[in-house]
Amino acid sequence: MNLLVNGDKVEVPDSIETMAQLIKYYQLDKKVLIVEHNLTILNKEQHQYSHISDGDKIEIVNFVGGG
Amino acid sequence: MLDLSRFSRQLLFQPIGENGQKKIRAKHVLIIGAGALGTASAESLVRAGIGELTIVDRDYVEWSNLQRQLLFSESDAQNRTPKAIAAKSRLSLLNSDVKINAHVMDASVTELEQLIPSVDLIMDATDNFDTRLVINDLSQKHHVPWIYGACVGSYGISFTIIPEETPCLNCLLETVPLGGATCDTVGIISPAVQMVVAYQVAEALKILVDDYDALSGKLVSFDIWKNERVALSVAKVKKETCLSCGPNRSYPYLSYQAQTKTAVLCGRDTVQIRPSINMDRDLDSLSDILAKSFDGKMAKNPYLLSFDTGEHRLVIFKDGRVLIHGTKDITEAKTIYHKYLG
C-alpha cells in the first residue's frame, strides 16, 4: 500500500489497516502524537478505528521535550 | 532619544518599520531556560532591540554545551558559570540598551508566578514537560502568550499559544509525554536548534509588534536530517473541556498535587524525585535508550532499573519514582533527572 506520510511517498505492508497499526509500524505507539488523516485531525481514540487506504495523506507530529 | 540606526535593516522590513521597532523596545520578554534554545532566542531578541529580558535557568555551563549553546565560552565551562549569569554577561556586550535580569533558579510554580504577570511574552526554552505545563497554565491565568519550542536529534517542533485564541498545550497533549528521547540520550545537532529558534523568534517578533494576523496558527515540526516538514492547522483541537484554558478551568498544573515532588533522603546523599502523575514506566525501552547512549553500569529487575553514571547512580522505579544517589542538592538532582529521563 502506498501512502503519503509527512510529505513523502512511502510503501507500507498491506497488513496495515488502521492508523493505530501504522503508528505501531513506525514505533511511535508510546509517543505523544498529533495525527492528521486526509486533512482531519484524529483524537487518540480514533486511531484504532481510522481505516487506512492506498493513497491516503497522513501527517504525524511527535511531541518532544528537549531544548 | 533612542538611536535607531543600528536597527536600520529591521526598520526597512515593512511589517516592523519604525513603529514596530518602538513597540519592540517597549516590551519585556521572559525566556525560561538558558540552554540551546534559550541562548539562541535571547541573542536574537536582544539584538532585535527588546526593552527588557528576563532569563531563568537552574544549571551551570558544561563543556558538552558549547557545541550548540551560543552565548557560552570555554571559560564559562571551565568555571562552571551559571548559565543565566554567563548568558547575561555575553548579552550585555551585544546590546547594552537592553535591561537584562538573570535568575539562577529552578523555574517552578512559585518562582514563575512572580515573573509572568509583568512580562509581555514567554519563550519556552525548557527541557521538560513538567515546566511547560506550568508555563501553559500561568500563561492562561495571566493572559500572556507563550511559544512552545523543543528539539531532539535532528527533529524540532514549535507552536504559538495565544490565550483565548489558540488551543493550549494541554489541549494538544492528550497525555503528558514521559521519558523517551532527550538531547542527552539521542543527541542534538545545532541546525535543529536554530530552526526551532527561527520559528519561535519570528513568531515572537510578530507578537511584539502586535501583528497577530501574521502568526502561523500551525503546529510546525520538521526533521532537518530526513528533510521532512509538517505544518498542521490545529485550531479545532481547542477543547471546551480543557482544564487549563476552557470555561471550567482549574489550572491543574499549578496545584501542589500536580508538581514533581522532591525529597532529600536524610543521611543517604540521595534525592527522591516523584513525578507529578502516576505512571507505569517502560523499563525495557528505557534501558535500551540508556544503554545505547551511555557507558554505565546497568542492573534491572522487574521493579526497578539501576543506572550508574560514574558520578551518580539513578534508581528508576516502575511506579515512576527515581532515586538519585550521590547528591543532596535538589536542583542538581532535577537536572540529572531531566537529562536522562526527559
From TrEMBL, chain A:
Gene3D superfamilies: 3.10.20.30. Signal peptide: none annotated. It comes from the Bacteria. InterPro entries: Beta-grasp_dom_sf, Mopterin_synth/thiamin_S_b, Thi_S, ThiS/MoaD-like. This is Sulfur carrier protein ThiS. It comes from Aquibacillus rhizosphaerae.
